[in-house]
Amino acid sequence: MAPKASQNLHAALVKAKGKMSHKPKGSAENNNAIRENAENIKHLQKLARRAARKAKWATKWAHLKQHSKEATIATLKLLCFLTESTCAKLELDAESAY
User: Fold this and answer.
1) What whole-number distance in Å separates Cα of residue 2 and Cα of residue 51?
2) What is d(CA 2, CA 4) in angstroms, rounded to the nearest whole number?
3) Structure confidence at residue 59 (pLDDT)
4) What are the C-alpha distances in Å from 96 to residues 64, 82, 84, 88?
5) Which of 22, 43, 56, 66 is the most exposed place for a label (fewest CB within 10 A)?
6) What is the 3-state secondary structure (H, E, C) of the chain?
7) Compositional bias (Basic residues) at which positions (predicted)?
8) How far apart (Å, rounded) are the C-alpha atoms in residues 55 and 48?
9) How many CB atoms lie within 10 A of CB 30?
10) What is the pLDDT of residues 10-45, one digit of tens each?
């Protein structure tokens, strides 16, 4: 989970925990508290989904960067091989010319 998303989720959890009410059942205050708790839970679920999306994309991006790095290394190795073989061929042609 991304650090910022983790911090937001933790802050929302602390805020929700602080707002939870223990009023007697059936009272208007209790009904309001239940409604607020439901809203807080929805907000926490939204934050959790957002954090999961960010983590998913961060994982995909790291995976793509790794493939890109491997492809770059393979290209450089191929370039070195072609350069060496071309140099060897040029040297061979130069030697046969004399």
Assistant:
1) 7
2) 6
3) 81
4) 47, 21, 18, 12
5) 22
6) CCHHHHHHHHHHHHHHHHHCCCCCCCCHHHHHHHHHHHHHHHHHHHHHHHHHHHHHHHHHHHHHHHHHHHHHHHHHHHHHHHHHHHHHHHHHHHHHHC
7) 16-25
8) 10
9) 14
10) 676 666 665 555 555 666 777 777 788 888 888 888
Instruction: Please report where in the chains the tokens 């602080």 appear, as a residue.
Output: 18
Name residue, tokens 């046969």: 96
| Identity of residue 55 | A
Structure tokens at 36: 């607020």
Residue keyed to tokens 């989970």: 1
Please provide the size of the chain in residues: 98
Encoding tokens for residue 19?
């707002």
Q: Tokens 């807080």 identify what position?
A: 40
